[in-house]
Here is the input.
Amino acid sequence: MALPSADEQWMLELVNRIRVDPDGELGRLLTSLNPLTAVDPEVQSALDYFGVDSTALQQNFAALTAVQALAWNSGVNEAATGHNNLMISQNTQSHQLPGENSLLTRVQDTTPEFINSVGENVYLYGESIEYSHAGYVIDWGFTSTGIQQPAGHLLNMTSGDFNMAGIAVGTSQVGEVSSTQNFITTSDVGPFILGVAFDDSDGDGFYDAGEGLGGVTVSVNGISTTSWASGGYQIELLSGGTYIVTFSGGGLTSDISTTITVGSANRKIDLALLGNDDTEVLLVRDDGDFDGIDAVGGSTPTEPETPVTPPPTTGTEGTDASEILEMTEGNDTVFAFGGNDIVWGFAGADLIYGNTGTDLIYGNTGLDTLYGGRDTDTIYGGRQEDIVYGNLEDDIIYGNLEADLMYGGQGADIMYGGQGNDTLLGNRDFDILRGNLGDDFLIGGSGNDTLIGGSGADHFYISQDFDIAADFNGNEGDRVAVTGSGVSIQGNSQSVTLIGDTGSIMIEGIGFDQFDSDNWIVFV
Here is the structure.
C-alpha cells in the first residue's frame, strides 16, 4: 500500500478541513474580506494579480455544505503520482498530456475498487502546500471576478459524492510545488474512521508536514491499526454504529478514547499533542465544532449502552479534589476550586474560574471569560472572541480562533494569540507573547518580555521595563506603539532600541540605518 508522504498528508488534511468545516475556511485563509487580505503574503499577491472579487468568493463559499472526510486510497494515489510526474517531466500543467490515457482509465488501471465517479485537480506552479491549497479553493483565474467559472477545483474538493482520494505532491523543474489530487466515489469499501496523529509544534491546532506521529495504535471495537509515518491512519468498518475509538502507544503517556457514532459516511478523529506540556487530546473534526476538544488524555469514555451521569454543569461548583468538569451547550458558570482540574466549556458564553490547583481549561465555542486562578494553568480560549486571565503563577494561554483579549497576570507567562486580531497583555514578570496570525497588539507590561507578532500587521507597545520585539517587519505593517510625549532611538547594524517615557523595546534583526522611524512608529 502506497502511503502518503508528509506533504501529501498535509494536503489531504487541508482538503478534509474544508470538506468538514467549509464555514471556517475563509477565516483561516484571510484576515479580512473587505478588502481581501490573506494570511499568506504569496496568496495575497495572487489575489491582487487576478483581481479576486470578494463578493463572488463569498457567494461560492456560502453555497458549500459540510461533507464527509476523504479516506486515503493507494491505488488512486498511484494514478495521481504517475500523472504528477508526467506534468513535472514535460513542464506542462494539464489533465491529459500527450500519449496519456484519460483520467478515468488511469485511475481504473491502478485501483481495484469499482469506481462510480472520478474527479481531478492539478497545479504545477504552487509556491507552497498552503499556497496550492488556497489556489484550489479560491480558484483564482483570468475572469471578470478573478475566479474560474465555474469554480471546478473548489467543487471537486467539496463534492459530497466522493469518499476517497489519492494525492501526489512533487517538485517542479523550477522548484515549485506540483500537485495532483484525484477523487473517487466507490461503494466497495467504507465507511472509515480516519484522521491524523500529530504533535502541534507550531501551536496552530492543525497538522503540518513534519508534525506527524507514527506508530500510534488506533483501536475501534477490537479492530486496530497503527498510524503511518506521516501521522495518518484509517480503519474500515463493517457497518455503521456507535464505537469507542482508542489511541495508545507510540509515545503517548496513557490511552485516550472517545465515543463516536458512524452511519454510512466516513468520520474523522484527530489526535493532537498541544502546548509545551504535550497535552494529549482528541478532536472530532466533523461534529460541527472543528477545533473543539472532545477528549483529554487520562479520561475514559463510558460504554455507549451504559447511562451516563454527567459531572457538575450549569452554575455548579467543583470540589477541592482533582476532577473533570464538563459544561453544557448553554451559558455556564463554574468554579473549579482546588485540585488539578480539567474544565470543558463546550458551547455557550461560559464563565470559568480555575481557582487553586494546576488546571486545564477549554473554552471551546462561545464568547467565554476564563480565569486560571492561583496556580500554573493551561488555558485554551476556543473558537470565538474570548477574554482570558492567567492570574497568578506561570501560565500557558492559547487564544485559538477569533479576536481574543488575553491577560497573563503575575508570573512568567507564555501566550499564543492564534488566529484573529488579538490583544495580549503580559502584565507582570518575564512573559513571552506570540501573536501568531492576524493584526495583534502586544503589550508586555512590567518585566522584561519577549514579543513575537507572527504574520499580520502587529503593534508592539513600549510598556514598562525592557522588552524585545523578535520578529518586527515594518514592510508587513508592524509598528512600535509609543505612549507619552516622545521616544529616543539608538542602535547598531543588528538591532534598534526605542526608549519611551515608561520603558524601552529592542527590535531585533533590523539595523539602525534600516529603521524607518517616520512610518514605523505610532503615538497612541
Summary: The first helix runs from residue 6 to 20. Residues 298-317 have pLDDT under 50 and may be disordered. The radius of gyration is 24 Å.
